[in-house]
Design goal:
This protein is mainly alpha-helical and 251 residues long. The chain is built from 11 helices and 2 strands. Helices cover 64% and strands 2% of the residues. α4 packs parallel to α7 and α8 packs antiparallel against α9.
Length: 251
């Protein structure tokens, strides 16, 4: 009888904890850290006291809901560590993290707070993600697909900033074709100079039409930054033009 009576409360406690976690996961995903615990208790169909019995604070509950999501990213990065074409793998992974996390305000808040040193999901979880991401970064750099001067701190800052911008664009009703534009710009900023799209050059004919040439020898003259436009390529041609004018009869 005692054992049977003890089993029932334990089962009820596990069920209530699962309900609280599920409700918290959806509430945090929608509203981030700002959601009140009372709202989570209402969604779970339990009292606030039940929430506090399982999770002493809102931060503890938030941490419990976010750990599994970050661990999923970490496991995926580890699975890709030996994949061929490390440059393409690196950029696909970054794009996937941004796409999935930008829909989840809890993840955005967690990654932003972790990047600023204000939050650690659980001992080692944040560091595990950084370590796995750094492996992908290093392999992409060795393949000459990512700039060599980028470190994990730079990458985390870019990732957090990109998440924030993509989420803001989605909130303002950006067209589906525009969503992901910030991610594309972030990835392009990480590429080495030779892999970035070059600025289109003007056709040679157009350049020739806009050239200024010396009035004496016909050589091209660099456009003047200030003052009157240059007429001659240098002092020798200027003096020659002056002498020519001096010999010209006055009428």
């Amino acid at each position: 009888m005692i054992q049977g009576g003890a089993t029932r409360p334990r089962a009820d406690a596990r069920r209530n904890r699962a309900l609280v976690l599920q409700a918290a996961r959806f509430a945090f995903e929608e509203q981030g850290l700002g959601v009140p615990l009372g709202e989570i208790a209402r969604r779970a169909g339990v009292g606030a006291g039940t929430v506090y019995r399982h999770f002493p604070s809102k931060e503890a509950l938030f941490r419990a809901t976010i750990v599994e999501r970050i661990e999923l990213f970490t496991d995926t990065a580890r699975d890709l560590a030996e994949a061929p074409d490390p440059g393409a793998v690196f950029f696909r992974f970054l794009s996937s993290v941004v796409r999935l996390a930008s829909r989840n305000k809890a993840l955005c808040d967690a990654l932003e707070a972790a990047g600023a040193g204000r939050f650690e999901p659980s001992p080692g979880v944040g560091q595990d993600f950084d370590d796995a991401l750094e492996v992908l970064l290093r392999r992409a750099q060795e393949a000459d697909a990512v700039r060599r001067d980028v470190g994990i701190v730079d990458l985390r800052s870019l990732l957090v900033g990109c998440l924030s911008m993509e989420r803001a664009r989605a909130a303002t009703g950006a067209e589906p074709t525009e969503q992901g534009r910030m991610t594309a710009l972030m990835c392009d900023a990480l590429r080495p100079p030779h892999a970035v799209t070059a600025v289109t050059k003007l056709p040679m004919e157009s350049m020739k039409r806009n050239e200024v040439r010396c009035g004496v020898c016909g050589a091209a003259i660099s456009a003047a930054r200030t003052g009157r436009p240059a007429r001659y390529c240098g002092g020798a041609c200027r003096q020659k033009a002056h002498r020519t004018r001096g010999r010209t009869p006055q009428t």
